[in-house]
């Protein structure tokens, strides 16, 4: 589709999203998380996992958040889409605190936040088509609209020829494409990516990261990429934050944090990444 056709198109998902995206100023903070707290009750007493997280994400960016295992990354993602209820704090989306929304409005808001996972979380007994259509079916969309959106989204992620396959017959990368399509089919403004490439081999990881970048560019969707893989962040994000022990301890441009980290976690990630890069160069015979 050329630029002129895209301007006219009011039907397909990429065009609808691109139009909505153009209404916003890309530099403004679109998602603001303020002083977010979450404590889990455990056998050993309360476990404080988020201890006052502050984070600002701009409209249409891919924002990275890195942290070691147990830092609270998944809890943060699950608090943002309200799979978990935070104990305290604010999650402002375009100025509206979604933690204060009445139940019905909250449900609607949740549908506008897609999520993809390390383990894909697909329905093994459903076809790719049915996996992708599921969020629309439970929202009560008419059949023709469901079909149109599923076909559109499948095309966007490169799965048009796999709609009648079952997850068991797909590669890891294809499964994650189904996960991405299912997360996008409701036309969300935010995609939470929780370790989405951690279970994939390096080549498939690159393909999925590339796909996320293309989708971000084509639709303007904001993406929060939560991971322990610095190279995934380096490849996709311009800005990032470091989560350590339930707190954001530094945030800024990826290059800045990468070359001049101010936290112990940032330092360790940068060091490990550089070691891998060095090993790669040696293996490729490039010397150091
Ligand atoms: N529902 C729960 N009940 C009790 N404790 C939990 C619950 N969910 C997570 N935790 C604990 O909270 C801490 C943070 O978990 P979380 O999954 O958010 O971290 P993470 O940074 O995503 O780690 P990983 O990279 O290993 O997934 C861990 O100690 C975990 O055991």
From TrEMBL:
GO molecular function: ATP binding; ATP hydrolysis activity
Pfam family, one: ABC_tran
Name of the protein described by the UniProt record: D-methionine transport system ATP-binding protein
Gene3D superfamilies: P-loop containing nucleotide triphosphate hydrolases
Cross-referenced PANTHER family: AMINO ACID IMPORT ATP-BINDING PROTEIN, METHIONINE IMPORT ATP-BINDING PROTEIN METN
Key words, A-Z: Amino-acid transport, ATP-binding, Cell membrane, Membrane, Nucleotide-binding, Translocase, Transport
Family: Belongs to the ABC transporter superfamily.
InterPro entries referenced in this protein's UniProt entry, alphabetically: AAA+_ATPase, ABC_transporter-like_ATP-bd, ABC_transporter-like_CS, MetN_ABC, MetN_ABC_transporter-like, P-loop_NTPase
């Amino acid at each position: 589709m050329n630029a002129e056709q895209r301007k006219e198109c009011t039907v397909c998902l990429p065009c609808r999203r691109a139009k909505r995206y153009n209404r916003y100023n890309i530099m403004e903070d679109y998602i603001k998380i303020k002083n977010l707290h979450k404590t889990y009750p455990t056998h050993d007493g309360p476990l404080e996992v988020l201890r006052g997280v502050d984070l600002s994400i701009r409209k249409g960016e891919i924002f990275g958040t890195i942290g070691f295992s147990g830092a609270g990354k998944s809890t943060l993602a699950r608090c943002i889409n309200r799979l978990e209820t935070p104990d305290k704090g604010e999650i402002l989306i375009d100025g509206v605190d979604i933690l204060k929304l009445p139940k019905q409005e909250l449900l609607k808001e949740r549908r506008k936040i897609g999520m993809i996972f390390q383990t894909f979380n697909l329905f093994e007994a459903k076809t790719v088509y049915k996996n992708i259509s599921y969020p629309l079916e439970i929202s009560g969309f008419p059949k023709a609209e469901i079909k149109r959106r599923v076909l559109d989204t499948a095309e966007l992620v490169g799965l048009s020829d796999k709609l009648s396959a079952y997850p068991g017959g797909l590669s890891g990368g294809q499964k994650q494409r189904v996960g991405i399509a299912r997360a996008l089919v409701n036309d969300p403004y935010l995609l939470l990516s929780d370790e989405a490439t951690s279970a994939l081999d390096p080549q498939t990881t690159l393909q999925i990261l590339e796909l996320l970048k293309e989708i971000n560019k084509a639709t303007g969707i904001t993406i929060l990429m939560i991971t322990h893989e610095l190279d995934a962040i380096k490849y996709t994000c311009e800005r990032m934050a470091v989560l350590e022990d339930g707190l954001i301890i530094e945030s800024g441009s990826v290059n800045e944090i990468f070359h001049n980290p101010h936290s112990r976690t940032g330092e360790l990630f940068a060091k490990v990444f550089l070691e891998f890069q060095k090993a790669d160069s040696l293996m490729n015979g490039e010397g150091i």
